[in-house]
Amino acid sequence: MSTLLHSRSRSRRDPGEFDDAGEEEMAGLSAKSDGPPMSKTRRDILHQQIRAIKDELGENDEDEDDVASLEKKMQEAGMPPNVWKHAQRELRRLRKMQPQQPGYGTSRTYLELLADLPWQIASEEHEIDLVAAKERLDSEHYGLSKVKKRIIEYLAVRKLKPDARGPVLCFVGPPGVGKTSLASSIAGALNRRFIRISLGGVKDEADIRGHRRTYIGSMPGRLIDGIKRVGVNNPVMLLDEIDKTGADVRGDPASALLEVLDPEQNKTFNDHYLNVPFDVSKVVFVATANRMQLMPAPLLDRMEVIELPGYTSEEKLRIAMLHLIPRVLEQHGITSEHIDIPEPTVELIIQRYTREAGVRNLSRHLAALARAAAVKVAEKDQSDRHTREMQTEVTQMIDHGGGGLIVEGAEVDMEVEAIGVQRQGSLPLAIKPEPLVVDEAVLEIVLGPPKFDGREAAERVATPGVAVGLVWTEVGGEVLFVESTAMLGKGDLHLTGQLGDVIKESAQIALTWVRARSAELKLPVAEAGSLMKERDIHIHFPAGAVPKDGPSAGVTLVTALVSLFAKRSVRADTAMTGEMTLRGLILPVGGIKDKILAAHRCGIRRVILPERNRKDLQEVPAPILMNMEVSG
Ligand code: ADP
Question: Where in this chain does the entry annotate a coiled-coil region (predicted)?
């Protein structure tokens, strides 16, 4: 082969490009067979030069070997015949190219992808064991009985009809409520591999379907990339945050997703980069979303929505004790011999350091405690080892009668201490670890001062013009303060706090309603008939950096304004939600369970809801309702 490469290199390059010595060497090489035997050094020089020339032409054996091994890999990939034909065509093109040539790299990467895709590789499908699946779900997740029941039903249908074209399960709920881990339990129950594809922020259709290869820097879409990474063609694929995809000028990712999820079309899913169809019909899709409302309707139509609204403090405590703490300790290589986190401490973490619907921050704080314990254990380990080494050294020296050797400088102490211990007859060889007991003081050292103290609401509504609202965001329900103030002006309304159009309109409606009812409400008016005469109103929604929108702040806005004009503070223990029309009708709003849980988390004990939302109270856990006064 080297002769072949050699002759090729001569034919491609202008002979004038070689320096004279090179030409002579070449001549020497061709004369090798019939001339006198060459010396070893001369032969070595010639070999070196051949290598240099091949390198320069990019024709070294390594590249040849590489292409050959790529071809072998492609043959083993078991591509369908039409794909194989296409791949061979591409491989022939690659063979004709020089590695430095533009397009060589992309062509190679493309063929590597074809060879890497699991055309035939699938996880072996066993019959689904429903009892084992239930045990697994129970052992990995606390509570969630309705959700687990629904998952078992789903698995039962798959067991009876493995190719059932049922809807795609979609877990909807705030972060940290166990959506991802439930999906991974489904993969476990089906004995399939699990892959998560994050769709949050995907605005470009090409993110799902790939860029055509003519595009510079083109890549396969996330779906094909995920399948390549997971290495089987029948994984459980979690389409995470499916509600966060949005259409813009670069196409509509939702339409690409629809194709992926459509059993009629997904046998021949066409990724633009791949340019040959790939069968994704064996993939089991599961989706997650934070909010259902944001999901494109056609997608929602293909999903079976399972809601996970968030946990009560009691549920969080149980989850922490039964699942999070053991998991966190294991992840940090420590055991309960090293750290003890008693229940009251976990309660403190839940109340003072977290304010969330799920358990993500709780888990993060527990990890911080575990890290602190790990440092303590590692330090102790090191000092034990040090003591042990010292003991060995000292013992050896004493045994050898060399005590005098160590009576030098800093080592004196060492000698004295070690001999002292030796005299007592026992060295601390294996010290049983003292667990780090996490109490309030340790919490403050590790996690810092508490973030929430339950007095926030009281402090913030101390002045007239502030009301407590309940809103629904993608991280679950939240308590929101609405602040309003009046100043000298021309009767304008100023709104701040990154508000969307709907919430701005709610503020307008609230102000109009209060102005129209000023007499009925007996609001002190500067001059008959005008609340706004020579004054401006400013309404602010903290936190100012978080975008807000939606109609459910209507009632809260009215309350804040009435409080402002009447110069009377609102009750700090009362939060409210509800949309208000211009005529003062209160319309029902969504997310009641999340909102009540949020109010409870913040220590609010009275909630005012639209009358027509009363039916939603059924969903709220009884222990929470018992602690609250809810009025319509
Ligand atoms: P999500 O996908 O909803 O954001 P994750 O599935 O990532 O949430 O959950 C975050 C962590 O909380 C995981 O470690 C998960 O196992 C744990 N977790 C959440 N809910 C439960 C539960 N009910 N029981 C046990 N662990 C839970």
Answer: none
